Automatic annotation (TrEMBL):
It comes from the Bacteria. It comes from Filomicrobium insigne. The keyword Metal-binding applies. This is NUDIX hydrolase. The keyword Metal-binding applies. Its cofactor is Mg(2+). Keywords: Hydrolase, Magnesium, Metal-binding.
Amino acid sequence: MKTELVQYGALPYVVVDNEPLICLVTTRETKRWIIPKGWSKVGMPDSTVASREAFEEAGVLGTISEKVLGSYEYRKKLHAFAYAKCRVSVFALHVDRQLLDWPERRQRQIAWLVPHDAANRVSERGLANLIAAFAYEEV
């Protein structure tokens, strides 16, 4: 029996001149572009987990949606020879501010991109589709 791992992610965005910009971060090891995401924490709502990861990984603060925007799957590397399927439930995060310093600032790069460019930068097809379809008016 295979178990699916579950993570919670934030899709941080701002609106500039009526156009959303999406914040992406790099992974620490492979430097691939992703959204901030992490594992559930006992007693913490899933949306709060996503918001906390966005703060830790990108230094962004704002209003997180209580409603799941969508989800995607990817292969999570567990160690040198083992992978597992992981599902990420994503919450939209309307960013109010970005800090000058945050916990993982020296471990990751960040980029603010229009949805089309952000979708092209990530490697997970499901995440790319979710970003490309993002309609901030509905959040």
